[in-house]
Write a structure and sequence with these properties.
By secondary structure, this protein is α/β, with parallel strands linked by helices. Helix content is 43%, strand content 18%. The relative contact order is 0.13.
């Protein structure tokens, strides 16, 4: 298998770098300054074992790569960037006949639960991936992953359900490359559990670390809204003890070469000045389901709007005044 990592940021860069170190053929797909740095110097990956530069090939898009049977496409961008990439890659020819959309497996290694639906309109073989892999990408060409003894844990399964030999082979490749992975017949159940955990990404992005009485209460209420919505919609998810056994007990975060992970994926988007943020597909998913099922979601709606405004206006992460944070409790 050759792994084509579409979006070589924090998650994609870590997964691609680890697979490369595990002896697997990998191609990274990136853009802008990050692509230029990858082409010039390679991927600088820092883990608890230290920092090193990996000579992983990098391209800017599907026009620069000849696809072949046995390739695995790993989509690792934020949801707001998925659609044009899915369109671009699905139509690409595969050596011997057929297109990527018809023949190749596509893994959605992304937060949220919308990507798989978008992908299934374009790809026949879609796999959901529940990603629990704390990592950072703040500078071109550089990725930090502090998990030890594995960088994280991934659940991989067919969408909408089921597993197969492809999922098992990919999980085995990852497990042999310092990434905990397992094939799962109910991967979306894990992804909905992860969605609840991601609801406070927006709170961290606009209001800073989720600690102290005010932020912890906001976090609790935000997740409670999400749980009420999923219950009303009849959507099951992995329970707390399952999640702890599968994720928390598998690895710990280790300070690495003086670097620490400063914030989650949404915080990093603001820190990089990306201009957009994934709140529409995290908090926004809860808002959508709440409207469909008649469940109020005032905190998730407020955090979605705040995060979007921060990204649009280029505001610094964590800069929402304390008084405005406190006012959210009255939402």
């Amino acid at each position: 298998m050759r792994y084509i990592i579409i979006g070589a940021g924090a998650v994609g860069g870590t997964v691609g770098g680890r697979l490369h170190e595990g002896g697997h053929e990998v191609v990274l797909v990136a853009r802008g300054a990050h692509l230029a740095a990858l082409r010039k110097d390679g991927l600088h990956l820092t883990t608890p074992e230290g920092g090193r530069t990996l000579p992983v090939p990098a391209v800017g898009g599907p026009d620069e790569l000849d696809l072949r049977p046995g390739d695995v496409l790993v989509l690792a961008v934020k949801t707001q960037h998925s659609l044009p990439l899915l369109d671009a890659w699905a139509a690409r020819p595969v050596a011997g006949g057929g297109t990527a959309g018809e023949l190749l497996p596509l893994l959605c290694a992304q937060n949220g639960v919308e990507n798989e639906r978008l992908a299934l309109r374009r790809f026949r073989h879609v796999y959901g991936v529940c990603v629990w892999l704390p990592s950072s990408h703040l500078e071109p060409g550089r990725v930090l992953a502090q998990g030890s003894p594995v960088s994280g844990v991934l659940h991989i399964g067919r969408f909408p359900h089921g597993s197969d030999g492809t999922a098992e082979r990919i999980a085995a490749d990852l497990a042999g490359s310092h990434v905990g992975a397992r094939a799962s017949a109910d991967v979306m159940r894990w992804k909905y559990a992860k969605l609840l955990g991601n609801l406070n990404n927006a709170l961290e992005a606009v209001g800073g670390p989720v600690d102290g009485e005010l932020r912890l209460e906001l976090a609790r209420r935000t997740v409670a809204e999400g749980e009420a919505v999923l219950d009303a919609a009849g959507i099951g998810r992995a329970g707390l003890e399952e999640r702890r056994a599968a994720w928390s007990d598998r690895f710990t975060l280790v300070p690495t070469d003086g670097e620490n992970r400063r914030g989650g994926s949404s915080w990093q988007s603001l820190a990089r000045g990306a201009g957009d943020i994934e709140a529409d597909h995290l908090n926004g998913e809860i808002v959508l389901l709440g409207r469909l099922h008649g469940v109020p979601t005032p905190l998730n709606a407020a955090l979605q709007q705040l995060a979007d405004a921060f990204a649009r206006e280029g505001r610094a992460p964590g800069s929402l005044p304390e008084a405005e944070l406190a006012a959210l409790l009255e939402a």
